[in-house]
Known about the structure:
By secondary structure, the protein is of the alpha+beta class. It folds into 3 domains: 7-128, CATH 2.40.50.140; 134-228; 235-299, Orthogonal Bundle (Arc Repressor Mutant, subunit A). Helix content is 37%, strand content 27%. A hairpin with a 5-residue loop joins β3 (31-34) and β4 (40-41).
Amino acid sequence: MISRETAWRIFAGELNMSSLEMKGPDEKSPAYLITPLGTKLNRVLVAGVLLDKQNIGSDEDPLWRARVEDVSGSYFVNVGRYQPEAAAAIASMETPSFVAIVGKIRSFKPDETRTLISIRPERIVRIDAQTRQRIVLEAAQCTWRRLNNMKTALSMPDASANDLTQQGMSKEEAEGVLEAIGFYGAPESTRYLKLIQNALRVLLPDKEIDLGFPEDVSDMPDEIIIDEKAAGDGTDADKEDVILNMLGTLDRDGRGAPMEDLISHAASEGIARTEVEEIVTSLMDKGLVYEPVLGRLKKI
């Protein structure tokens, strides 16, 4: 019996940096996309905000294209006739809404310099904010494990996959790490630590997250350090509530609140332009606000 491929938890920021494809010896062999951190992808489980969707096919033969945003970037989704359950689900979904997707990775190289990556869902479901946070946490934990696997492999230059499995990696992890190092070289640790940090800020908005940001993955700390900060008098949270309420009031035509109107109204509450921009960025990172078009903001 053929076992089903692992559905890896991964952020868009890691997925979209990938360009190494691995294919088996025959047509029926599974194909993989190797990420810079050594994830050997065939299937994924991801979560984010469904921001837009479009049926570029017909009612009888739908072909949906959609964009789902997580804390680090966008997943691009294609759903066609061979995924009838997923096609029916996405057709009924409103934008924006929190969604989770289990599906297969597809990559396409339009030229030698670009790799376009999309997800072909086996299943797409609407989820609540709590479920989305749980999947974000799992993705952060998995990304941290992959960074540590890289650190281990780079400290053992002549290691084989068998050597790495003896260090606690699975066979898939060991093979993926070695392929990634051979193709991409040592990863830029700061990029991925910032990705984890942004995810933790969404999960722990009242804490200060310090991941160290070494120049090289070999110098990466062995564990995540989270320095708790007193929540203070709640001023920042109060200002976020003010901005969220304003967005609802200023979105008069359903197309989103104009950013300049928001800044003008916030000034009357004693919130400066720079503070508004920082608060909006924070709300977008938390998945509470998005930008349907440039210069306009909507609540999720």
